[in-house]
Design brief:
single chain, alpha/beta, eight-stranded mixed β-sheet, 14 helices, 14% strand, globular
């Protein structure tokens, strides 16, 4: 089994999208043909859906480079707040920061009427049910067998992207009409979905290779003298970033021990680009692209090794 896992991280999904475009360029094959399972959380879930969406002749509809365009073209519309929203949300403190119109429109246009069960390569996308209080996995293999686990692909992408405080939870019903779920971003338990993907793939056979793509590691510190006086309000947004970052690092450590010769982790430090999930300004999009290009240049030999093992 060859597995691809893509982290969450909002607009920072531009980084793994560019890395995957480079993998496609070097292998001259689409990502959907290179892996046996593609897993994603949040922005990584959107990429997983886009990479496995069927197009003409049963081939992938999008090359990874085209999904790069989605971030650069649609990102500013998705992460846009007009004055009314800024006031009514009090900057995101008393309501979600963004209306989901831009996100819903972008996902509908990109993914159309496709169903989860139609994914060209098996996918697993993470979310969390806030009413049922359980981790939820969109799994295309299960959707093929049971309509009660099939959903519109764009809705699966929307649900996994419902980051707390950024977008409201997403309510959706399965194709059979058996159950309705209220879902938020799977990053609350698996911002790095690589371990979930490993466990899922291992049930089908030995995992020979696992490529894990990050969306940039945080370098901005929270100062002790500031944090020592924080209460619930002050901790609210930093805590989300810290939990997401800590989970990603923990999974990286665990898989490095489990698969010392089979796990590839490609992660960049965000030294110039913002670590904010919603900074889709032109300057930050340029900085994210530069970060990805630097990662590709610095880890070129490892990417060559990965491509060789994939082909």
């Amino acid at each position: 089994m060859r597995v691809l896992a893509i982290d969450g991280g909002g607009i920072r999904g531009l980084i793994p999208a560019l890395v995957l475009a480079e993998v496609e360029r070097r292998t001259e094959r689409p990502v959907a043909d290179l892996f046996d399972l593609i897993a994603g959380t949040s922005t990584g879930g959107i990429l997983a859906c886009g990479l496995t969406l069927a197009g003409a002749g049963g081939r992938p509809r999008y090359a990874a480079e085209e999904l790069v365009d989605l971030y650069e073209r649609d990102g500013p519309r998705i992460f846009h707040r007009d004055l009314v929203k800024r006031i009514t949300s009090a900057g995101g403190w008393i309501d979600e920061r963004y209306d989901d119109d831009g996100l819903n429109d972008a996902l509908r246009r990109a993914l159309g009427d496709a169903r989860l069960k139609d994914a060209l390569t098996p996918v697993m996308i993470t979310a969390y049910d806030i009413e049922g209080r359980f981790a939820f996995f969109f799994r295309s293999q299960r959707a093929r067998r049971d309509p009660a686990y099939d959903f519109a692909l764009w809705e699966a992408a929307r649900a996994t992207s419902a980051a707390p405080t950024y977008f409201e939870p997403y309510r959706l019903t399965d194709a059979a009409g058996a159950r309705t779920y209220s879902l938020i971003d799977g990053g609350v338990f698996a911002t790095n979905p690589a371990m979930c993907a490993y466990v899922d793939a291992a049930q089908e056979g030995p995992v020979q290779l696992l490529a894990s793509l990050g969306t940039g590691s945080h370098t901005r510190p929270y100062r002790h003298d500031d944090a020592r006086g924080w209460g619930q309000i002050e901790w609210a947004r930093p805590l989300i970033d810290i939990v997401f970052d800590g989970i990603a690092d923990t999974i990286d450590f665990q898989l490095g021990a489990l698969l010392p010769r089979a796990a590839f982790r490609l992660q960049a430090e965000l030294t110039d680009a913002s670590d904010a999930m919603d900074d889709a300004s032109p300057a930050n999009l340029r900085a994210l692209r530069a970060t990805a290009e630097r990662l590709i240049a610095e880890r070129s030999r490892e990417i060559d090794d990965l491509c060789e093992r994939l082909t």
